[in-house]
Amino acid sequence: MRVGAKTGKLWRRGRPVPREPSAMDGDAVGAADVADTREMSRSLRRADLKAVGEVRRALRELMRHRCRADTAEVAELLITEIVTNALVHTERGAEVSASLAETRLRVEVRDYATRRPRPYVPTADDGTHGRGLLLVQALADAWGVDAPARGGGKVVWFELAATFEGGPA
Description:
The chain is an alpha+beta fold. It is built from four helices and eight strands. It has a five-stranded antiparallel beta sheet with strand order 4-5-6-8-7, covered by helices on one side. Strands 1-2-3 form a three-stranded antiparallel beta sheet, with no helix packed on it. It starts with a strand and ends in an 8-residue tail after the last strand.
């Protein structure tokens, strides 16, 4: 099942599924409590590298009209790197989620491999391979690897300060 970043529609096997309005829609009581939070999530199949572009577009849509262009570009680069790592270096798919709150963007990619990623400085023979976590380390305001409480695997995450259009939040 997937959730659309812009519309919040639920999708199953290529078709939208009707859903009840949520506080995120702004129509429900209590919307003020979550008015400044937006979320996006995707489930990715093993080795489905075409999904990387979809995840990048969904994040761009999540951030559109809410963050400055340079922040969105960095976020797109970093999500591309950690999603690609999860799909290339693990045997199962991945779960991707992003939440945009008042002052921060947090992106999490959960895979089902227990091996923790380590940034390393690639040699000249590596071509473009091996630089993803170095980019995350250099460009993210914070990042890390957590072991989830249940289900095995790990969560690789990063955070960026959400600099909003028109100035600070």
